Amino acid sequence: MKTIARINALSHHYKNSVALDGIDMEIPAGCMVGLIGPDGVGKSSLLALISGVRKIQQGVVQVFGRDMNRSLNRMAVGPHIAYMPQGLGRNLYMTLSVFENVDFFGRLFGHNKEQRAWRIRELLDSTGLAAFANRPAGKLSGGMKQKLGLCCALIHDPDLLILDEPTTGVDPLSRRQFWELIERIRTRREGMSVIVATAYMDEAERFDWLIAMDDGKVLATGSPTELKSSTGTPSLESAFIELLPPEKRHGHQSLLIPPRLSREAEVAIEANELTRRFGEFVAVDQVSFRIERGEIFGFLGSNGCGKTTTMKMLTGLLPISSGEARLFGKSANATDIDLRRRVGYMTQAFSLYSELTVRQNLVLHARIFQLPGSQIAARVIEMVERFGLEDVIDELTERLPLGVRQRLSLAVAVIHDPEMLILDEPTSGVDPVARDQFWQLLLQLSREDGVTIFISTHFMNEAERCDRISLMHAGRVLAQDTPAELVRTREAANLEEAFIAYLEDTATDVMEATDKDSDRSVQTAPTQTRPRSARFDPRRGWAYARRESLEIARDPIRIAFAILGPIILMIAFGYGITFDVEDISYAVLDRDQSPESRNYLENFAGSRYFEQRAPLYNYADMDAQLRKAQLSFAIEIPSGFAKDIKRGRQPEVGIWLDGTVPFSAETARGYILGVHQSYLEQRLRTASDKAGQTVPANVETRFRYNQDFKSVYSIVPGTIMLLLIWIPAMMTAAGVVREKELGSITNFYATPVSGLEFLLGKQTPYVVIGLINFASLVLLTVYLFQVPIKGSVAALLVGGLLYVIATTGLGLLMSSFMKTQIAAIFGTAIITTVPAVNFAGFFTPVASLTPGAQVFARIFPSSYFQQISLGTFTKSLGFEVLISNFFMLTLLIGVYLLLGLTLLKTQER
Amino acid sequence: MKRNLVNIFQLGIKELFSLLYDPVMLFLIVYMFSLAVFEEAENAVTGVVNAAVAIVDEDRSQLSRRIGDALLPPHFQAPDEIMIDDIDTSMEAARYAFVVDIPPGFQADLMAGRPTRIQLNVDATAMGMAATGAGYIQHIIAQEMRTFLKDDHAPAEVSIVTRAKFNPNMEAKGFQGAMALTNNITLMAILLTGAALVREREHGTIEHLLVMPLRPIEIMLAKVWANGLVVVLAASLSLYLVVKGALGTVIIGSTPLYLFVTVIYLFSVTSLGIYLATLARSMPQFGLLAMIVFVIMMLLSGAHTPLDSMPFELQMIMQLVPSTHFVNMAKAILFRDAGLDVIWPDLFATAVIGAVFFIAALLRFRKTVTLTQV
Predict the structure, then answer these.
(1) Residues B336 and A626: beta-carbon distance below 8 Å
(2) Which one of B48, B77, B120, B125 would you mutate to disrupt binding with A, by most A Cβ within 10 Å of its Cβ?
(3) N or C of chain B: less Cβ packing under 10 Å?
């Protein structure tokens, strides 16, 4: 048997849990390999390690005979592997259209235009997505998302296809179509190996070879028949349970559904023609149903068919477009707090606080639902025991496997003993054993406590357990009855068949996928010339740049902030920040009241810098006014001023400044001394004129570069410097981190894109936006503020380009090592504001900074561009004088990029 | 009512746990209120401090050397001596803000009573120090000449003495420190609250809260008190340990009053942060929006340049921004020992602005949950 992957002593640990515990195995090539086991046993970790997406901690993984521990090998085998991560559309870009998503992956693998056009058409045709080529991925149903994900994975004709739970959360028809599609692809590409992790045992029955896993260990391997015969069980599901160690098997029994005893007529939930529109799109279309008290009512349908929207309307989260919803006979009203106390709600996505522990989550909800304080501790313990959370009670919820988290969600939803539970796909992604346990709890609640349960699901066997179900598709209810009755009506073998029959009645989009004609093109597929994976390929970088641009283009609000923000700020700062001091307020305490004192004071009154306020009468008056900041300074003329001048006794004028703001006080003092000096010179001149003498020497002051000494000539070019670091750096700050948070970073790990291509590609569109900002700021400077470019225009433009590259690079650097978007945004705000305002020469020239601050100035690009901006606008300079600044900017661009590359992880850890 | 308070308290506790869980954020908060404040206070000085000066001494006389020696710290760095041909290039490269050119034969001419002049070149793009610095240098040169000539046959007829109230040495450190603290309070409060809300929306936990017996107002107030508390604690520690301790600033005013005012201000700014978060649909949008708002609050509130010199319209607009009032109050309380009687109009304005943002955010709150863009 040929092997595709060989694994030796592979172990993998997360903070305080073991995901894989010394695994050894050989995975056969050219067949469908299934990976089965409960949630959180290491299936996903194993697949990620085989695909090279996750970094190997311990042990050896060989794929295609190459050691995946070495990056050169990963580069070499990468283009032969396709990896689709867990989660609906995790690797897709939701604002991009179907076509654009596939196109992006084609570009990543270096296909030319023709190849792409041909291959995308082929893939979309064969998956039935061709009709939706222009629909944004975010608006696809779950099944379609997975098909699109598959298209993206298959674009480069991989030899090994790795799928992590590809059909979880997908409706049965789409699921069936998905496997048919895989089958067709495998007939076309003989020898392609597929490794699939799945939670559906019925799917696993069809695979060639299975790996049963539990607790980071391999329980058994072999074909489905081998596994069944070795355990002597009829089905895989029971075979798997048989394979589990005895202590785990304990507690699992096949689920018995006790019938509902009392059929109360009381209606708990009632919906009449409930409709919800989002613009043109009708998400829920005239849905009606009645759910009786104590009943388990199921909503069966694919993701995106309107189940969630209906439930949100019932809970008051979404306003109802038309129709009516009543809970316990009361209208579903968002503001009815008492109603909410009677309902428990569990959302589709795990929406508890992942940063809190299990206990903290439970206590928080108990408190919010106002359980008496004395009962909380007991109730929490009760929940923990009932839902089997004892072992994890003080774990952070974030670290729990999905199945356990869902149990916690349910525990939280019932902690206040609600009369009704609304559960939106509570078992999505939970393994069969855990699902059965979960249902055990639901049945208990329904049959023993009489809780009404409204549950949505895409699992057939769960739907079968409901008292009544409603089959939903594309916003409409197809049929509604007891599961048995539905099967009987359609004369189907089981519920799944019945549902598919109903779906096929509605001639809608999903049907096209079953179009058998699509096989035609598949037959003619030529073998594709595989591009060499070069170390650096600008096409891959361009693919990222293009994709990022498309995403930005779909976000008009962000574009508006990015383009208009700097313009508004420029106008505010250009007019607002000024050192032109005028109208410094002052008042006089004239104790002499003589012609001489008035003569002296006239010099102040006549100056345009000062503005006189009502005279003062005593110190208390002066103190009070200074304290209220009504005055900037006060002048005190001593009594006997005139007399003293006459007698040559040099009277002393007192100035009282408000020293709170040292800069303002200093400026004021400067002007005061100037006025005083000119008074003295005036006296001297009149005196020397009489004596026929000349004034000996003076200081000629030349204000260079800015003869009018107007703030605008230095503030406005400086503001360009400030804005071009704040806005571009902030734009890129979220760039990489956001992909980490949303999961699409996997594409970077799984495709042959290098870090350099990734970073440059992400940066490019923001550089373009930065340049648009730069252009608008320069135009504002020249035309609105009338600050001409006296020096070299070329130098300014080149400087602007380098600066924008450097500042976007700085933002990207922050983004490449921060873990959350918040931290990246925070870090960028901190790192760009203080140094740019204080240490770049905006208020104070860099040369006049303290040595410590000069270090700050040198490692950020702002100080260099400040020189270029001031130099070209105000100082009439060109390239020669400014050359060192250009050099330093280029150097910083390189340093940021290198640092970014070093800190950017190319594999998951 | 009591139930509401319990909810607000519980949700706030949750908020604190969330913060505790993020070590990077904790690190950034500690950094912002310790080192960052210290750094800015010590190093970010406006005005004539540590100015870079050069002298072209073509005279090489006793007097010319005395003038050079008289340019002293803290206002000036020790002057570099350069050649006359270097004046242009060195000023173009912004190596010096001031270059004093003493012509040949200056001392001799002066003693002989022949007219002569010293040239003072000022880089007028260094607006923060150009005018005042030029004044100081002129004053210093005049004084040196007078002392040199022992020119007491024509004493100044009137002398002038300037005293600075509230800050006798016109020490900039304390003021800079207080203003750095102010700006960091603003940044922290906006980002912490706003980003927390955007994240909760992106993760779907807000929806979860809204189906529980909670009102939006409780969720918002919880965010206000919890994040506000963190910032107030950090700011108090910073005030005592950094501004008073490490920087050695003498605060003549009432620190408790300042902290009380900070609490009101935090209500205002955290409300603003929540409001901004209801406007943004995703974290990148919030980041940009918050940045734009923050830099306006930082640069135009009077912490960096005086409000009085702004155009009248802009001054009026800035009255609508809470940081303007907070800066006013911080200056008044910390450095002028003003009491409630003086600052109450600003305090009132801060509270009203905060209430407006809070109500605006409340009106948008439910709606924006469904607007989240992922």
Answers:
(1) yes
(2) B125
(3) N
